[in-house]
Amino acid sequence: MIKTFLWGFVREIKMLWQDKRMLFLFLIAPLALSIVVCGAFQKGIVTHIPLAAVEENSSQQTRALIEAFDQSDRFEVPYAVTNQEEALALMEAGEVYGVIVIPGAYTRALQLGQQAEVLVGINSANNIIGNSAVISVMQVVKTVSTQIAVKSFVAEGSTVAEGMAKAAPISSVLRPWFNPQFSYLTYLGLGLTGLIFHQLFLMTVASAFAEEKKEGILSGKMTGKESAIYFVNKILFYGFLGYGNILWNYYGIITIFGFPMRGSKEDLALLCGYFILCLLGMGALLGILCKNTIHAIQWLMALTYPFFILSGFSWPLSEMPTSLVKAAQFLPTTHFLTPIRDIVLTGIGFETKTIAHSGKMVLYLGAVFFSMSVLVFALQVYIAKRRQKLKVSGKEAVQL
Amino acid sequence: MIAGIRFFFREWIYLLKRPRTFLIMVCIPLFVTWLCGSAYEKGYFSDLKMGVVDYSYSAQTREVVEAFRQSPYFDIVGYYENEEQLEEAMKQGEIVGCLLFPSDFTKNLQQGRQAEVLLGSNAVNMSYGSTINARGSEVLGTVSTQMAVKSLVAKGSNVEEALAKMNPVGFYTRQWYNPTNNFSYFLSFGFIIATLQQVLVYFASISLIREKESGKLKEIKKVHPVFQVILKAVVYYLIAMGTWTVCTWVMMDQFGIPMKADWEVWFAYSSLFILSVITMGQLFSSVMPNPVFATSSSLVLTSPSLVLSGYTWPTMALVPFYQKLANVFPLTHFAAGYRDMALMGTGAVGQEMHILGWISGSCFVLSCIFWTIRVRHIAKKEKQAPTPLVQEAEQAVQ
């Protein structure tokens, strides 16, 4: 029995080594794809957003306002036009992301001591870029406005500080906690790494089990005992390799892209371990239930985006309808993608309710998937053996 | 001609006999459409939980807090004693943002100095962070101007004069094409289109190679390999276009997501995208050694396409290498362009359609060439060394 058990590992290594596709998908693709995906966000924030300025009546004041936008890191003003239609056409053509409309009465209003108005339109088809651009627009216009007000107060005899206090009694400081650069990479990188690993690891485990239907432990050509031992071998083999692989992936991504590791490494390792257990059960179940590898890939590919949407990683679960929140509880991604980001970036761990709950849920799900996979496996082995027996007896009858 | 028609219906029968195939091809994109519509139905954030640390508890700080309480975007959960408690509450998920008044806040205001307030947000999720920053800055700006105007009015100015003096450049921002800042407009198109691409590339990449794998190339030898490619592409195009039409209808009719473009443009643009995905899948199918390889490699290669497509993260913010790489994927030329077209009415889709046309054309030509060579090579091989099964059949006939 020990010999069979040890031989089982050699068998797994051989099978994996012979299948170069699986070897690539399992060991190389997760980190390679994560690097590609995270690399896309390496600039972190969007700068030099192109704007078009509509100057209905050009003057020193209007040029000063445009100059203020152009000098800001966030914007550049490559176009100055004279009417709104032209600016809108530029926006629709994708040349600019926003428009500053400075009405004809702008300069006159300032000279007469009246409030001058400016319209800043931002293309908000992409909300996140739109929102952060709006904040920067507010900052630029506010700065210009305050400068003008302070100058007038200084001209009346106030000091600059007094003028500032009169013009803007409250100033605000924005502090994006745990992501000080307000970086897209920080926001998405860790979760996308988890999702890529989730899909590829499930594909590998499911393929490994589905392939056993040809000649292996699910073909009915082995004894029940052998099948059970090789099942354990498979789980242990992919479990250990998968665990090492996920840790290696996170280590690689955190190191290469400089994520701050604020939480405990042990908590990260523990949650990754729970996640692997859960995925092993899920992958095994999928592989045993599917007719072949292609079917398993089909389902995984089709469900990539539902897994991601329901995980609450991009759009929080608190903003989703209750029925979807309930459904999301049955997915491992829900209890892994956001918690892993929280461990790394906010520094929380299993002492908090949220991470402890996630850990528990992943374990429960893992237990359910695992039990189901063992049951289905036993049933499939039984059916395969019966089929094999019938085949053999049929052949014998023909020979007789 | 008859062989071609037979081949066309043969493909339909193959798909119809496999309900799982249809389930995935038709129902999964529809399911994702429904999922996006339902999950993002609310569309915007409201009642964002905010905590307050007030080291300068006074009527002025309460006025600021009250302004946040009145805003539909915020919900003031409570006061905390210090910054550490605030951070802890944020870590525990009790709050997603905060206001912090330093101890000299009221004193500064009373003495005519500028007072500072900190607006914090949990920026780990940027959807929260960007909304808190944008809406919170608006609230604080309004309160600040109110206070300044009040002080001048108290000195005898009227409100207009005071406003002009304190805030000489007033501005209003307009969020064009998505005025309610609805996240469902932003996210839904991307996920649905990416799902359609995944499903389609999968089936296209299996479509040709499965004929070789199942040993049925002889059955279809009457149809020229080029026509095999064309007819299969037509079948998948019809299914995908039908599914996409229903998805568009569900988005518009059930979830109120706009489609401002002309239907002719919608049809042409969608058709080119679908054709480019199909031909790309067929190219994989004609080159790869077996269906498992064809499907896995096409899926691995297309999986980063949504990230690189410029849909969430604009292409202009990508490094040049990624910008070039992104151009290979049909999704880059469709997802963001489609969203702009749907929300803006036109968008710069002309050039994108041109590129999609090029991708479709080149992938189609290459798949035809590779598939023809392959089919001929297999036929030649079979002629040279007839398989035992063929030999047996020939013997039986004799």
Helix content range of chain A: 55-70%
Order of helices and strands of chain A: HHEHEHEHEHHEHHHHHHHH
User: How far apart lie the N and C ends of chain B?
Assistant: 31 Å
Oligomerization category of the chains in this entry = heterodimer
Number of strands of chain A: 5
Number of discrete domains of chain A: 2
Overall number of structural domains of chain B? 2
Low-pLDDT segments of chain A: none
Poorly predicted sequence stretches spanning 5 or more consecutive residues of chain B: 392-398
Shape descriptor of chain B reads: elongated
| Order of the strands making up the biggest sheet of chain B | 2-1-3-4
- Counting H and I runs of at least 4 residues, what is the number of helices of chain A? 15
What proportion strand of chain A?
5-15%
Question: Which structural class is indicated by helix and strand composition of chain B?
Answer: alpha/beta
Q: How would you describe what is shown here?
A:
Chain A has helices spanning 2-18, 20-40, 60-71, 84-92, 106-111, 127-155, 160-167, 184-211, 224-257, 265-289, 293-302, 304-310, 322-328, 337-346, 353-399; strands at 49-55, 75-81, 98-102, 116-123, 170-177. With 400 residues, chain A is of the alpha/beta class. Chain A is elongated and about 110 Å long. With 398 residues, chain B is α/β, with parallel strands linked by helices. Chain B has two domains: 2-39 and 182-389, no CATH class; 48-166, abc type-2 transporter like fold (3-Layer(aba) Sandwich), CATH 3.40.1710.10. Chain B contains 17 helices and five strands. Chain B has helices at 2-16, 19-39, 59-70, 83-91, 105-110, 126-154, 159-166, 183-207, 209-213, 225-254, 263-287, 291-302, 305-308, 320-326, 335-344, 349-384, 388-397; strands at 48-54, 74-80, 97-101, 115-122, 169-176. In chain B, strands 2-1-3-4 form a four-stranded mixed sheet, sandwiched between helices. In chain B, strand 1, helix 3 and strand 2 form a beta-alpha-beta unit. In chain B, helix 8 packs across helix 15. Classes of the chains: A alpha/beta (400), B alpha/beta (398). Chains A and B meet through helix 2, strand 4, helix 6, helix 7 and strand 5 of A and helix 2, helix 4, strand 4, helix 6 and helix 7 of B.
